[in-house]
Amino acid sequence: MAIKPLEDRVLVKPLEAESKTASGIYLPESAKEKPMQGKVVASGPGKLLENGKRAAPSVKVGDIVVFGRYAGTEVEVKGDKHLIIRENELLGIFGS
């Protein structure tokens, strides 16, 4: 099963939370924070504007993005957790 996002939504696979602190201490599963960055897996065609044209998405497949802690809707694709997030809920892109 594949998901194709609609409008200005993107499908993001969250990156794993760090299991070790900078000082080398390993964190238990219960202490890990929800990841706030992920990789764009799929992107919708863009938001439909009032003039009937579509605004081009500002992210592309493969981009690493930052999003809010509670942004998007969680879905499961092929056994992996993903998020469907509106483009305006994304906070930034790494390395672009």
Describe this entry's structure for a reader.
A six-stranded antiparallel sheet has the order 4-5-1-2-3-6, with no helix packed on it. The protein is built from no helices and six strands. Helix content is 0%, strand content 34%. It has one domain (9-16, 33-93): GroES chaperonin (10 Kd Chaperonin, Protein Cpn10, Chain O). The mean pLDDT is 83. The protein has strands at 9-14, 37-43, 64-67, 73-77, 80-86, 90-93. It is mostly beta strands and 96 residues long. Strand 4 and strand 5 (80-86) form a beta hairpin.
Topology:
Elements: E1 9-14, E2 37-43, E3 64-67, E4 73-77, E5 80-86, E6 90-93
Antiparallel strand pairs: 1-2, 1-5, 2-3, 3-6, 4-5
Summarize this, please?
0% of the residues lie in helices and 34% in strands.
Q: What structural category do the secondary elements indicate?
A: mainly beta
Using the coordinates above, name the CATH class. Mainly Beta
Return the string of H and E elements.
EEEEEE
Q: Largest sheet at a glance? A: 6 strands, antiparallel
- Strand residues, percent: 25-35%
Report how far apart the termini are.
30 Å
- Work out the number of β strands: 6
User: What number of domains?
Assistant: 1
Low-pLDDT parts are none
The CATH architecture assignment turns out to be Roll
Rg, please?
Answer: 15 Å
- Name the helicity range: under 10%
